[in-house]
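Deliverable D4.2, example record:
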Amino acid sequence: MALKRDQSIVPPGAVPANGSAVDAVVRQIRELIAEAGLKVGDSLPTERELCAQFNASRNTVREAMRILKAYGLVDVRPKIGATITDNRMSRAFELFSFNTMEVSRKTFRDVQAFRDLLEVGSVERIFDRLTERDLDDLHRINAKLAENHDLQQASEIDFAFHVRLVSILDNAAITDVYTVMKPVILRIMQKGKTRRTFKTETFSEHEGVLEALSARDRLGFQYRLRTHLMIGFRNFNDEMEATA
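Output generated by the structure prediction step:
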């Protein structure tokens, strides 16, 4: 299944000025997918055809395919060959969730500052788009914190509250980012907390945010949400940061 293209090719064994031969083939395969309009489930040319098309060695093509598989863009199966997939989110999730059993003070600052940019920094758009249904959903989610849950369930509810908050922005990219960051966000939420903490402090902090939303109090919303995001910093000590 050779696909003709007008492009420069890299001689076998040559290293392009802008990267390795493998990098060049990765780029060429991605361009091939885009230019040929290949979709999920479609087959790529065979290894032999790719070697001929890109004037590349078999080892170079195989390494390029391994990289694309790691990206979640292709799936390679024996006797079937390479087909187009779209597992990029799951690959990113696996990468971000690796080794999140402990988080340092720096991780806390970085992640919560990023969330501050999205949640607090989007105050104008959130208020412009806010509906009564949004408020009802947020109150309903927060009410679950007052029920009897274990720590894992409580942190999942806390996370769901913030995901529902950013969903007001109607931005799929932000929702995807939160999905990828979920493992480390949950660890941050759980650090130093108990079931009682979620039922009292976290619940009350959320209620304060909702009061400001209902009153259309922009400054109050920013202050209460930022305080809520950063209050957990007290649960991280210098020793953790030094050993993280």
